[in-house]
Amino acid sequence: MGKLFLFMLLPSPIHQVSFRGKSLFVKRDDLIDPFVSGNKWRKLKYILQDAAQKHKNHLITFGGTYSNHLLATAAAAAKNHLRTTAFVRGEEVNNPVLSLCKLFGMQLHFVDRKSYKNKKALFEQHYSGNNDTYFIDEGGASKEATRGCAEIIDELKENFDYIFCAAGTGTTAAGLLEGINKQQLPTELHVIPVLKGGDFMKAEIANYVNDLSKLRLHFDYHFGGYAKTTPELITFIKDFTGSTGILLDPIYTGKMCYAIFDLIAKGIIKKEAKILMLHTGGLFGILGKIDEFG
To answer: Residue 251 in contact with residue 283, Cβ under 8 Å?
Structure first.
């Protein structure tokens, strides 16, 4: 594990930007590492430590065809001389993200969507009795992951009225909330689920955190569902990136940032509030949508 830390920009910096007349603070976890960036490093940190303590040298994980988690796991494992295998959801395809995974030494197995739903069964089917393998759930979801994400709060040197983050599984949000509660901060955590039907996320977060009193979920910013976009969202991302120099992706951070300014415009969030936006990286997600940016 020691070698991996040498590549990390930690603590990640906080940049203040102005957009549409509003000052905003951005926690730049996207700068932690080119490939193990954002919440992916936070999630993997203690997972990799646990694997090392258990003397496991072959990481088995899961993801979609443009999964930043797969790429981050492949890169982190390569830096630590570990093997990686991924079960990829859907029919076999080639794309830049999967090509990078393979360059980092990851073996890919494409599985149909029905089989993919039962990840534990896939793991047992292929690796039962193999003492070298270590199961990592999709996106790194685990108690170890929330522990790593909670450390984001430890890095803050000042208080904020609101912290915003995007969410796919709720693991990062759970870690942030755990950190806020632990330090007894007055901060509200505002979470933007990026997939349709994100109502389940509160229950997922509750699996890791008991006190949800400072949690706020906003379900109306999925733009049609996971990995779905609209021309309005694409235009917003182009405007924000062109004005601030901070690149957003259309899967996670773009939707979250759009939500912040829409909530301000609607008066739900006070314009004068001190807001920290967590940039969770995931910028390779742009590659799957690059044609939409013109």
So the answer is: no
